[in-house]
Amino acid sequence: MGKVISVANQKGGVGKTTTSVNLSASLVYYGKKVLLVDFDAQGSATTSLGINRSTLNGNLYDALMGEMDITDVILEVPIQGRKEVLHVIPATIDLAGIDYKLLEKENHEYVFDQLVKKVKDNYDYVIIDCAPALGLTTLNALYASDSVLIPIQCQFLAIDGLTQLLNTVRVVQKNLKVNKRELTIEGVLLTMLDKRTKAGWAIVNEIKEYFQEGVFKTFITSNVAAQVAPTYGIPILTYAPKSPAAVLYKSLAKELIDNNEKRQSIR
């Protein structure tokens, strides 16, 4: 059974989409079967992978509205040096008004959960790139997830505003227990670290003190290649496979895989 992981933070500009895209590609690099879901109306994950939104025959909105089967909106994206492909559910601007549409549906927090149940067994990991908000789309993602990965930028007031996200996660955790399900914190990922500044390292220490063992050992430094790769519509592993950013995202993927294998062995 595939593990569903939401990449979420209501604060924009924390490297959420960059993480979703490059973590997914790196998991494929390690031979994992991966589905990346773009759950953001901006469609940044979609365009970062070179998918032309204007020519799509179907997208996440169509699946959520019941107009298309979820299997019919999944696309394949090749990953450099791998025979395996990354599977992607793209997003378009149609998602901008999806919250109101979902409210009309029964059990509206679980609409996506019902969809992803149809396909998650085909994958090792399902990665959801959530919108930078705590609306009904993000709730749908969380209710469908087994865990949530929280990217936090290494900048002043990085932790500010996380209380609301953590409170939302606690509400989902409480409600899922009723259905004998669980939502855990996959980990906190430190992003955009400028290793040259004392301020950056001070924030690293602050976040580690706050989240303790919940922080990934891998942290993502500021890197030009990671910023440029989306303009070419390819992940960093394809654009600059030997760059520091590519090495770091592969390290993150390996850490995530190892953590999950360790948890499974303990059960």
From TrEMBL:
Domain AAA: 3-177
One protein family per Pfam: AAA_31
Gene3D superfamilies, alphabetized: P-loop containing nucleotide triphosphate hydrolases (3.40.50.300)
Superkingdom of the organism of origin: Bacteria
Segments forming a coiled coil: none
InterPro entries (UniProt xref): AAA_dom, DNA_Partitioning_ATPase, P-loop_NTPase
Membrane spanning stretches: none
PANTHER family, alphabetized: P-LOOP CONTAINING NUCLEOSIDE TRIPHOSPHATE HYDROLASE, PARA FAMILY PROTEIN CT_582
Family classification: Belongs to the ParA family.
UniProt name for this protein: Chromosome partitioning protein
Organism: Acholeplasma brassicae
